[in-house]
Amino acid sequence: MDFHDDADGADIPRLLEEIPLLYKAKAFAESLNANTWFSRLGEPLDEREQYLARIYLDGLGFPEAEPALLTDWEEAAGAAEALDRDPIGWETEEMLRTGLVSRALERLDEEAVSMALALVAQKTGDTANDAIEDAAAIDDVEDMELVHAAAGALAQAANGAALVVLAEAEDDEPPHPFLARWRLFARGRWPVGLAGASYNIL
What we know:
The protein has 202 residues and is mainly alpha-helical. It has one domain. The protein is 63% helix and 6% strand. The protein has a three-stranded mixed beta sheet, sandwiched between helices. Helix 1 packs parallel to helix 5. The longest helix is centred in the middle third of the chain and has 29 residues, at 110-138. The relative contact order is 0.22. Residues 1-8 have low confidence and may be disordered.
């Protein structure tokens, strides 16, 4: 950002207020650790993962839905196809995303929000593809469209979690559903998505 002699002095306090939040976003981006991504696919859901799935579902307004374990890639492919037929979870997420963007823009200008999200995207992009391709190779998965869908889902989850940080909602109780979903990825899972009354998790 360029500073000029005729810059509006009234902007200085606002810029100083933005700096700590941008550092938090940068710290989140730097904390992204691919060592755990997609490392527990198909394993039984532990107590913590059950809890995170419940937080996600309740936060989206689907208390009647339950987490459902997917045990292999074939089941994940079927669950991914079901998302196209039953997009209600995605539509609800988009409403939550719009709310987070509005909250973030109350704290940062649009350029700062875009830069922070671009940094997170850069940190997750190639690394997510490498992580899921390694996991797929171990299981002899040849459906590269499905593999890339998993990488895209992780990138989207990281974007959502970053928005939670930018909206200063990361300490909310219960946790924001986007943060719960991100923590499922961080624990090595692929939460494929909500279809009917099932939150399908590989």
